[in-house]
Design a protein that fits this description.
Length: 493
């Protein structure tokens, strides 16, 4: 690596000394494969595996010294030692320390596989170990001159749209499994359930391509009203997405037709957010935060910020964080939609731990908030050119630059990641389960606000609106609609 590149990295990254002054430590930093002259990071996605994990036996002495034995470490025969082998090694270490007069204990941790997927604007997909920063694989897809979408990730597959080509890769190796041509204009990144990839189109269609033996190469098409601007969201066995008309549509994997439509009739501020097992969150550009049931579209509650919004929500544990354009951030109860606290300086969510919430200000500075009160604990000086990626799945903080430098921070002493959505894969509904909405559709659309005083009680909007005022008027309809079966695309159309 040239001294010039090292110097550039030192200017762009948060230094170790600065991080330590604010209770953080740098876990790793690396360089994503980007053309230094022209390439830029397009998107960062984090995937916490629900099926792959390692059990670690950690020996901790009274003096704080630590010895780590993973089931994936190799034994004398070059084979993984397994859970029992790691535990045995840890017990042997405790006995050796005891013989030297040092007291020690064994702590066991189950750590899921955490993978960071970076896509660049030149068609490179780079998979990194989220805890070590080591490269797992890097693959090029499509043509560098065509736009590349954010990656869609499942346990088995990674899907990326480059121009009008859908590339499906093996999540473990990065090998390209298959590429398919997409007719029409893809809108954004796809979504994956099992071995079916759902590609959103600008005209409001979702094209579902299945990559399995004996599966048709023609996509199944689902139609929605309006143009799609944001990546669809996987919610259990469903895919949900909004359009620019403020209409949210939902489909059930391997079932024909739109299951329901939720009509909010106002602009949507970003991708929908799934909170397992039965909650999807949606932020509208006019300042409402909605919570609805992904099975049937019933609105559970809504919260009115009293301000414009331009960012999607984030959720950690039982708290939803919603950001406004001028009033800062609100922490809202996920169960009831009631305000917990507000932080006027916060503009974007970055990450959260048990005690702290990390966010950025409107000028890009990183701030640390008290997770219980929202009070600003401190502000960390950061370069405005840095990219701070939102992570509501773990307690890690990922900072990068457009030129491909990427680093990870954690709170000092947080050796093992805290997972904010434990068991989310298990919480997902099983294939073949009968959906609640699959019965006879109601004769009239369901009114999502049939109990107008239930939650936030927002008044008709005015510029100086009190977000904690009286009941809000009806602003939308939730329509359960069983449409005719979706049709496969005719390539000769």
């Amino acid at each position: 690596m040239s001294s010039g590149l090292l110097h550039a990295q030192s200017r762009e990254l948060v230094s170790t000394d600065v991080a330590q002054r604010y209770g953080l430590e740098r876990v790793w930093f690396t360089q994503v494969r980007v053309n230094p002259g022209r390439g830029r990071i397009r998107d960062i996605r984090l995937h916490v595996s629900g099926t792959r994990a390692q059990t670690i036996s950690e020996v901790v002495t009274d003096q704080g010294r630590k010895y780590v034995y993973s089931e994936r470490h190799l034994n004398a025969f070059g084979e993984p030692m397994g859970v029992e082998g790691a535990a045995k090694k840890a017990a042997e270490r405790v006995e050796l320390l005891k013989a030297d007069g040092i007291a020690a204990r064994v702590e066991q941790h189950v750590v899921p596989d955490i993978t960071v997927y970076a896509t660049t604007d030149q068609g490179m997909v780079h998979a990194l170990d989220g805890e070590t920063g080591q490269t797992i694989w890097a693959s090029a897809v499509g043509e560098s001159q065509y736009p590349t979408s954010a990656a869609a990730v499942s346990e088995e597959l990674v899907a990326v749209v480059n121009g009008q080509t859908l590339s499906v890769l093996d999540a473990r190796t990065g090998a390209v499994i298959e590429e398919r041509r997409i007719s029409g204009a893809p809108a954004t990144g796809a979504a994956i359930i099992d071995r079916t990839v759902y590609v959103p189109m600008l005209n409001g269609q979702i094209k579902a391509f299945t990559f399995a033996e004996k599966a048709s190469r023609w996509p199944v098409i689902y139609r929605s009203r309006g143009a799609i601007r944001f990546q669809p969201t996987v919610a259990g066995r469903r895919v949900v997405w909004p359009t620019d008309l403020g209409i949210i549509s939902a489909i059930l994997a391997q079932r024909p037709g739109i299951r329901y439509r939720l009509e909010l009739n106002e602009g949507i501020a970003g991708p929908l957010l799934y909170s397992p097992p039965q909650q999807v969150l949606c932020v509208t550009s006019s300042g409402y935060l909605y919570s609805f049931d992904p099975r049937n579209g019933d609105v559970q509650w809504r919260f009115n910020t009293g301000d414009e919004t331009g960012e999607p929500a984030a959720i950690v544990g039982e708290t939803v964080y919603v950001f406004t354009r001028w009033s800062g951030m609100y922490a809202v109860s996920a169960a009831k939609g009631e305000i917990e606290w507000s932080a006027p300086l916060a503009a974007k969510f970055v990450a959260a731990t048990r005690d702290n919430v990390f966010a950025t200000t409107r000028n890009g500075q990183l701030i640390i908030l008290d997770a219980k009160t929202g009070q600003v604990r401190t502000q960390i000086p950061t370069d405005e050119s840095n990219m701070l990626f939102a992570n509501n799945q773990t307690d890690r903080i990922y900072v990068g630059t457009h030129s491909g430098v990427l680093q990870c921070f954690r709170e000092i002493g947080a050796d093992w990641p805290t997972i904010h959505v434990p068991g989310f894969e298990e919480a997902a509904e099983k294939p073949g389960a009968k959906a609640k909405e699959e019965g006879t559709a109601p004769e009239k659309p369901v009114d999502p606000f049939r109990d107008p005083g239930a939650v936030d009680g927002a008044q008709p909007r005015t510029p100086a609106e009190n977000p904690f005022g009286a009941a809000a008027p009806d602003t939308g309809k939730a329509e359960r609609k069983q449409e005719p079966p979706a049709k496969s695309e005719n390539p000769f159309d």
